[in-house]
Predict the structure.
Amino acid sequence: MELPLAPFKQPVRASAVIGSHVENYDGENCGRIEEVVIHKNYGEVAYLVLSYPGHFGPSYAEKFFAVPFESFEMKEVRRHEYDYVLNVDEDFLKRAPGFAKHSFPDFADPRFITEHQHYYKGITLDIAV
């Protein structure tokens, strides 16, 4: 039985988010959450930083991808244990702006913000709960 998607209704520990799997609505593996980026002025999560799965190819092995937090939904896989769902396909992810794993960007840089807002602006959460 497929468990329903869950809205973000309660606080979740960052350590419970890091390491979580990400999939799309077709159940395809879209990666793993490596970091949680918090907007320090607002105390809100700004981005979840993903690593992509190995089948994407070797050029993705040394890169991370910051995806705006509002692009995700949670899917409960066990009581109090969640995976994250992103309404995109593999091609969308492969074209996404990324950065070297050992060279995190300045998440407050206006160019970074504009690039990510533009790229992810079409992501919708088409969920029938």
About this structure: The chain is about 15% helix and 35% strand. The chain has a mean pLDDT of 83. The chain has one domain: 5-120. The longest strand covers residues 29-39.
